[in-house]
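I wish you would study the pair of lines that follows with an eye to the fold:

===
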Amino acid sequence: MTARHTVARVVIACSALGGTALTCGPALADDLDVSPAVARPGQSITVSGGCRTSDRYVNITGAAHGRGVVNDGWFSVSATPTRDRAGRYSITAKCITSNYSQEGAFRIGTRHPERERREDHRPHGGAMTGGGGTQGPDVPWTGLGLTLLVGATGIGAVSLLRTRVTRDRI
């Protein structure tokens, strides 16, 4: 096997890995984006997620109820929580036509009583003013970055092997 064949095999393998990583769309992830994640009693929440592109409607059930329209496989529905006690509650979004369902969660909480009494509260520090730098464990570009890293490592390894094979022939 020549170095050219090795390069071709590694490129094909990296393309296959990258292709599968890029074709997996976020619309079929099994989680919902609930905003705000912590709601006050009586406050409505917005549930966002994805369905199949053939779906037309979505129903939100569980601890919150709502119904909305699916546009190009994506939805964003305003839902009303059915619970008003503090705690963590589960919701389910079911896409009408395909019966694809996703689960998510939100919390009902109350504000800190001391903070409600203070009218002059102003944000301070990195976390309260929007700075900080942490994005959480579900950064959307992680999979693509890892795929590119694996591909670059494979190409570097093939280049090293090709150089050694060429050096041994001389």
Notes: The radius of gyration is 24 Å. The chain has a mean pLDDT of 75. The CA atoms of residues 88 and 152 lie 43 Å apart. The beta strands are 33-35, 38-39, 45-50, 57-62, 64-69, 74-81, 87-96, 101-108.
